[in-house]
Design brief:
alpha+beta; 4-stranded antiparallel beta sheet; 34% helix; 28% strand
Length: 102
């Protein structure tokens, strides 16, 4: 299996970035921490845009990424966070070729 990575950019409703972060911390932080399919995960605020969040995720495989999207934790997160977002995320899929520490 080949490693699989994603860069996901979310735009929040104006002034809702901290609220989105609280929802992410409640649902996603524990789910990601417990998920053996995640190799790395970075949840970041965009310094140039006060309403943008960017996440970099690396999975053991594309299949592991797809399985994570089917979890109860992810469904609960989506239900609570979608009203706080300005629209769907921008998703870029990547195939890692090298990483420090791998």
């Amino acid at each position: 299996m080949t490693s699989h990575a994603l860069i996901i950019k979310h735009k929040t409703q104006a002034g809702k970035r901290d609220e989105v972060r609280k929802v992410w911390e409640r649902h996603m932080a524990p789910a990601v921490s417990a998920n053996p399919g995640h190799i790395a995960y970075f949840y970041c605020f965009d310094n140039a845009d006060p309403d943008a969040i960017v996440a970099f995720q690396q999975y053991v495989s594309a299949e592991a990424a797809g399985q994570f999207l089917k979890t109860d934790s992810y469904a609960a997160y989506l239900q609570e966070v979608e009203p706080l977002l300005s629209g769907p995320p921008q998703v870029t899929t990547l195939t890692p070729m090298w990483s420090k520490g791998s």
